[in-house]
Amino acid sequence: MLLIDCPYCGPRNENEFTYGGQAHVPYPEDPYDLTDEAWGQYLFYRDNQQGEYAERWAHAAGCRRWFNAIRDTRTYKFLAVYPMGAGRPELAGGTR
Ligand SMILES: [Zn+2]
């Protein structure tokens, strides 16, 4: 069982969490100005990279709060967790 370190509750089992997709995807400043293609890009297209990946998670069966995490997609290891609204932390020796 994978443990995820909720920044508010501490380590909990992964089955208490809900994945929320890629973190730090900015909402368009004026979505009405977007073409259908650009709106589709915003809604459906995300990075799909190996290695460190910033994600949104919710502790759905716990405190019900959202937070961001950096996870290595090759190993599933969580490298950092941080509150929503905080900037992505720099990891020592990390690659993006
Ligand atoms: Zn929590």
Automatic annotation (TrEMBL):
GO molecular function terms noted in the UniProt entry: sarcosine oxidase activity
Q: Which domain of life is it from?
A: Bacteria
Q: Which GO BP terms, alphabetically?
A: tetrahydrofolate metabolic process
Concerning InterPro entries, the annotation shows: SoxD, SoxD_sf
* Gene3D superfamilies, A to Z: Folate-binding superfamily
Entry's Pfam families?
Answer: SoxD
Q: What is this protein called?
A: Heterotetrameric sarcosine oxidase delta subunit
